[in-house]
Amino acid sequence: MGGPGGGTTTDPQLRLSWDRSLRRLAAPERCAPRLVLDRAGLHEALREGRAPLRLLLPVLDELLTPLAEDTGLVVAVTDPDGVLLHVRGAAATRRRAEDMGFVAGADWSEDAVGTNAPGTALVLRRPVTVHREQHFYPEAHPWSCTAAPLLHPVTGELLGAVDLTGGDAAAAPAARALIGAAVRATRAELALALRADPAGLGTAAQPARGPALPAGPGRDPVNQDPPAGARAAAPALRVLGGHPPALVAGGQEHELTERHAEILLALARAPGGLSTAELSDRLWDGRAREATVRAEVLRLRRLLAPLGLGIVSRPYRLAAPLDSDAGRVLGLLERGAHRRALRAYPGPLLPRSEAPWVVALRHRLAGLLREAVLTDGSAEAVRQYLALPEAADDAEAWALLLRLLPARSPARARALLELERLGA
């Protein structure tokens, strides 16, 4: 009876996990995942007892599912006990995974199937990668997986785990980086929701966006722009599109370095503040020393001082709220105002940034905008979306435009040419 991978693993935590598995399950051949929740039970678990997870599932779907579908992987989310609540991804891979019991409602805790990425990540409360024969459960030996725990941003409570499962790509460093970025994005999303519902994430767990404009004759209160002069000229962060990032204050634009824009955006989206370690994790993937982070914040603080803006320490947080063009577009999308969001969106969020948290937010913002336009958009909205450089090769959008255009519209010829170019 050997250890993980025939004793080849270099991760001592996996050896300890195998030891735990042997004590609890005696032998690999004696374990198997049990189906503990049926369809009704899964619905109830998410609707009643797992409000934070219910909020986070759309974020994880937006960030991970499209990539999983393109690369033949499966995305799974568990509850704190290791029960799979949500399984998405490549259809062929999901069908194969079902043969080993990797389905929604199944128990994939260490107690049930021994060493595996989501179950072991829940025990260790840290990211885990398990490659092929490192799994305790023999049916999982053809598979690799990487998982990370989902923790409450305030209490540290274990909410569940998110997992990528499939071939060797699921154990690659890129998979671990992607999981990490997704987890950080969900923590930020949950922190925002807690601002609106600090009592415990009730049904109205959406970030407060200020009072809506009163509706009047002929006015669409969601998709119409407010009257000119309705808002005070407060400082704002510009991080969308191809222009250099800038802070707009006092009617003037103050150009920012990429790193300073990243820090300001991270702090603007985390009103409760971020520690030095959290800033390093979000923007440097945890590789920056505390002295490096402190030096960057100090330089930014000096830049902001003449503009009347400040950064408070321990944790780092902005002394006053700071709007951003990215935050405005996200707010419009959350309210269903896709036409206004499309008009306010000039291009990707900090397109040259490689900071994990920024990359995750960039994909989320672009994905939400695309989904809103393609789901509810008119022909004109789809045309506006396709005018964005990042959407030029979106064959699905061109096909949708072709379906929405009138039969005699001259724009149909352009749509057909683009579909031919894309081989669609």
Describe the secondary structure blueprint for this structure.
Layout: H1 12-25, H2 39-49, H3 51-71, E1 74-78, E2 84-89, H4 91-98, H5 110-113, H6 117-124, E3 128-131, E4 144-151, E5 158-166, H7 173-196, E6 236-238, E7 246-249, E8 252-255, H8 258-268, H9 276-284, H10 290-304, E9 311-312, E10 317-318, E11 323-324, H11 325-334, H12 338-344, H13 356-376, H14 379-386, H15 395-404, H16 411-421
Parallel strand pairs: 6-11
Antiparallel strand pairs: 1-2, 1-5, 3-4, 4-5, 6-7, 7-8, 9-10
Verbal overview:
- 41% of the residues are buried.
- The strands form three sheets. The chain has a five-stranded antiparallel beta sheet with strand order 2-1-5-4-3, sandwiched between helices. It has a four-stranded mixed beta sheet with strand order 8-7-6-11.
- The chain has three domains: 193 residues, 2-Layer Sandwich (Beta-Lactamase), CATH 3.30.450.40; 140 residues, no CATH class; 34 residues.
- It is an alpha+beta fold and 424 residues long.
- The chain starts with 11 loop residues before the first helix and ends with a helix.
- It has 16 helices and eleven strands.
- A hairpin with a 6-residue loop joins strand 4 and strand 5.
